[in-house]
Amino acid sequence: MSKTIKLISWNVNGIRACIKKGMFESIAEEDPDILCLQEIKADEDVMAKIEVPFPHVYTYSAEKKGYSGTAVFSKIAAVSSSNGMEEAEYNTEGRVLNVEFDDFHLVNVYTPNSKDGLLRLPYRENEWDPKFREHLLKLEGDKPVISCGDFNVAHQEIDIARPDGNRRNAGFTDEEREGFTKLLDAGYIDTFRHFYPDQKDAYSWWSFRMNARARNIGWRIDYWIASLRLQDRLVDARILPDVMGSDHCPVLLEMKVVN
What is the value of pTM for the model shown? Predict the structure, then answer.
């Protein structure tokens, strides 16, 4: 027997601020079974005091206060959870939260931005992206993997409103795009493009400047990717651009799971 569950991923750009803006109320209509957040910007003590309308809470805060961090809230109890990747050097910023469920691994990620001037692009290209890909493939050896979050890259020209003007800007360099291609080629599906390969003007992040969101001058940098082994269990993938509270909007995945 199987059932369909809803999973939402959202870079909230500060969980406390987003809650004050009605975060939980904003997604109540979708009624997700699992909610994954990035850039919570809150330490473990702060997270412990937040009232969450989910019975199971898994968090991973950065060592630096008010920076980065990830969280997973779930109606479904996990088999286990763990923080970070295998190498400790990548685990100071709370960027990778692993939650194992009965028939899949969930990896919530907040990928490092390459920064102005592409100062962190060599780190992205030569260290982070390959290590993250290896991390997913290691988990894949146990059971299928889904991964969500802010990947900080618009993969294709269709995923960004103004590709020509952003060729060497962080999030749309050839190196970052190739890194995401290699991730998909390793055996993963960009679930939104799986269902909507030609949909234009579908974005998940907008700059606060120049009234970009109202004009829909955006980037699609938030994803749900899924193991090829899960392809037949994918039901839908959607972007929720009308949900406010952050410079990002939530992205949603529906999939079948074994009861």
Answer: 0.97
